[in-house]
Write a structure and sequence with these properties.
Blueprint: H1 3-18, E1 27-30, E2 33-35, E3 52-56, E4 59-66, E5 72-77, H2 90-96, E6 99-104, E7 114-115, H3 123-136, E8 142-146
Parallel strand pairs: 5-6, 5-8
Antiparallel strand pairs: 1-2, 2-7, 3-4, 4-6
Length: 162
């Protein structure tokens, strides 16, 4: 089994768990896409970050954007099955040290839209969405921090990102 197959298999497991919640708990954006309502996140006390969103090919992608960037820019990529919440303690520390900190929620996770079709979740789609985010908010000379399969998106010679 190659890395891409392992990645897709892990995504399928994670998504099958995340979409097993009855639809009443989510908003159907379209028949193929669900969005977790913002109020579902309101009771999380230790995640005080202002939400930011971009449109990625018709999907809403969430990201945290904190700090000035005087010391540089870091993008924090989460793994499976977590979201930017996993970096909630690191974000304020890095921002206080002068970094601009970007922590996106991959499509299918956290505050980003969830595509119902499991075949959508491929390495290529995740690379594409991150490239769109990086270009949309004009990130340059960034330090990439990865966790779990968050690293497979960038340490991948096929995409010329290693």
């Amino acid at each position: 089994m190659n890395l891409k197959n392992i990645f897709v298999f892990a995504m399928a497991i994670g998504l099958s768990l995340s979409i097993s919640t009855p639809p009443v708990h989510g908003q159907a954006v379209t028949s193929d896409v669900h969005r977790t309502p913002d109020e579902r996140f309101s009771a999380i006390d230790d995640y005080p970050f202002e939400p930011h969103y971009i449109d990625v090919n018709g999907l809403r992608m969430h990201y945290v954007d904190e700090g000035t960037g005087a010391a540089g820019t870091m993008i924090l990529l989460h793994g499976e099955p977590v979201w930017s919440y996993m970096y909630r303690k690191a974000i304020p520390e890095l921002a206080a040290a002068g970094y601009r900190v970007i922590a996106p929620d991959n499509i299918g996770f956290g505050k980003s839209d969830k595509v119902i079709d499991l075949d959508w979740y491929t390495l290529d789609h995740h690379v594409e969405t991150l490239e769109i985010l990086i270009k949309a908010i004009d990130l340059q000379n960034i330090t990439i921090v990865v966790n779990d399969w968050g690293g497979t998106k960038w340490i991948n010679p096929r995409h010329g990102t290693f």
